[in-house]
Amino acid sequence: MANKRLFYAVYAAGIARDGSASYTPIHGLQSVGLTTTFNLEEVFEIGQVNIYEQIETLPDIEVTLEKVLDGYPPIYLLATQQGTSSSLVGRSVAKCSVALSIFNDTNDSASGTPNTEVNMSGMYVSSPSWNFPVDGNFTESLTLVGNHKQWKSAAFTFSGSIFNNLDQPLAVTSGVGGVNRREDLLFTPTGNAWTGTNYTILPAGQYGGIPGISTSGTNDKTADVYGAHIQNISVSTNLGRTNLNELGRKNPYFRYVEFPIEVTCEIECININGDQVSAAEDGVVPGSGTNLEDKRIKLVCREGTILDLGTRNKLASVSDTGGDATGGNRSMTFSFSNFNYLNVTHVQDPASLA
Amino acid sequence: MELFKREYLLNRIVAGYIPYRVGDSTLYIRSPKQEILYYASEKFCGVYANAIAEGLMTDEDAYAMLIDLGMWTEEDERRLNIVFPRQLEDFKELLYKSMFNSDKRKKYRACIDIAKKEIARLYNIRHSFDHATGLGVANYAKFQYIVEKSTYLPNGKRYNWEKSSPYLAMIYYQDKTISEETIRELAHTQPWDSMWIAGKYCGSLFGKPAINLSLEQQRLISWSALYDNIRESPDCPSDEVIDDDDVLDGWLIIQRKERESRQAKTQGEKLIGNDKIASAQEIYLPASNLEDAKKVDLLNDNFSRSIKKQRFAAIEKHGQVNETSLPDIKQDIMIEMNKMMSNSIKRGR
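Predict the joint structure of the above. Result:
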């Protein structure tokens, strides 16, 4: 298809349960990317050089949304309201609809009211990811895939408050910070109403963990200095989706996830005493013959987002960069992975899944 | 304009004064010195403060009065400030783009004339009560002060206005102001062109520092510098374009829009940190009002803009449109099918 890139001004974006026409607005939205691919298939016949028929098969729609973590429910939770539990498996069955309210031709418009809408229904979660950088805002990015996209001139119904230029992070109005940044990753329980006694747990130091992290997974302070100087954390997974088709229907009746699904977590920290990861033929973990132990990972943000990656995360690789002649700190990136375990909860989850 | 007329006007600008004949004698209204301009501004501030204290109308009051008298509407205000200036820009742009189509050029020139006349007509109505507003009174006092303090006798002494009114001299001075079109013509034609080039090598053009230049001298230099920049541009238009103010304006508008679009693109791409979103076909950026939406729209190039226009037209016409029914998508599918067809024929050979 032709290579083109269109920029639209979007006034509001919302997500609804599949089949519902009432969209919950996505607050703190930063940008949206949408790609549509049309697939054509040619049919030939014996005795003819020309194509017998060109069949237009299902178009693939891929939409990626990115928002800051601000106290409003993450997009992943809005998109999986029909899930059965907060686990990756429980949320993988859910479908949703996405609506974008966009400004029409800005040159001819005088009212300043967005008057065109684009709607994608039957969308499945394909790839959620979260970034916790040392510089900048904590963000969530979610890719949804589907096969149906429609444009219309009438307005969609958005439930709840829509933007009126007075919108601000729910975390601000609820007294649990604002748009979360580095200081908002909780290494100790704050006791605020949204995170309660929860706090971040990182892979403990020995046998494939992060140096400086205590055996219970806490990043403890000694004389006001953290044990590990964490720089960036990113969590991501890719559900991939395979169409399940049936006779009598063009669209797939389900797009299943090909389990097992790998969930990765990359943790970058400043290199103080090396990675302290040992690798030996007979293993270094006493009595096991292995070099690595399963680790627990749980990330807790002040605004209420909790990512629980379970207790069976294993170090997949560790790399050491920086510290060259041009200056800069040496940093280590620990890459952990588990299979099928990613529990995402938020106090504002519209489906209140646990 | 003939060469002798240009010579006359240019000499007047260089001399920096206008002779004003009263009966048998001649007075000289010189370009105001910096000191006079300073006191004139002070006078303006004083008169304006007094006028407001005495309850003279503000511009808002004059606007309300025009509406009360049925002379003006909100739509007129929009037409004066938004619609016609925008149309004027659009027509100038189209005029430049239709340089090789004389029929269209004629049509666009007529449209430009109408837009200019309409702007002038609306402007006159909108400012018909200016003389009665605080700003109007203060402006008049400032101008009167400048003319009074800048009028000299042939012997070089300042003229004393105590026994007469400077009113006629003010009108005369104002009438003699050189229009923008004339200054533009002077700026890129002979004899000024040679003087300007010589000035670049020899230094000062008018024999005085920039701060002491008359307003007309400043305007002449500004336009000359602009014409220099145009000639040095890698996309320099032809002389035919440079000689025609409206066509050249069209070229300048296009250049400005391209620059704004480039700037917005760079800025916008910095905003999209997510690689997946940055490489998507359609990128949606939040905008809470029309002004922000316009900035987002600047990120599109002309091709993308025309696609959006087609799409919106189709959506407006049908109310509800599937992706495959959008005009550009239909075309894409058709191209793809033709490509497959031609490939199959090639394979068959």
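Chain A touches chain B through 56 residues (CB under 8 Å).
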